[in-house]
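User: I'll paste a sequence; please echo it back and then give the predicted structure.

Assistant: Echoing your sequence first, then the prediction.
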Amino acid sequence: MTGRAQDPASGPAGAGGAWVTLDECLDRAPAALHLWLAEPGLLTTLVRRACGCETQFRLLRVEHSPLSATLAHRMGVADTGCLVREIEFACGSARWVFAQSVFPDSTVRQHPWLAELGNVALGESLLGQPDVSRQPLEYREIAADEELAVAAGGLDRPAWARRAVYRLSMAPIMVQEMFLPALINDGRAPIRPGSTA
């Protein structure tokens, strides 16, 4: 799970295509994922609501990496390096969500605590910050041979992902979240909005 922080985003929509709005892709996504893709809040909360006491958070990698030109452009920075943090949420032994956070070097210099998160979820840490905003979510089906899917541990089929640029005191953070096949197949995952299951 090493390598450059990548933006898998060029070409037509669909697997291997461009990031688009939810309205542009929802009809192509599996129905079991609609609630997850549309969730406006933290996936941490949704996973815990669906999985309960079996929820597991795993820190997979924290590593300094080159920052791709396309991701740097998307975040509006001139940085060539970044800190990449990869985690997954599991329900018991089933891996549900893989997430990659990309912190440009300039963001880490401004907020060095980001490099020291350890086993704390980024989303919950950002909730405690006074000056955080998020740009609109973007969505895409990721082909199994793309770098983001490879980073997730290798998939045998395309998987849906969403991403957004967060601004922490105007310093950007890219968060890319991939919904793994077990999430669709697990009977606990399709929950109703507002459910406390």
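The chain has one domain: 22-185. Strands lie at 55-66, 81-91, 94-104, 132-134, 138-142, 159-168, 171-179.
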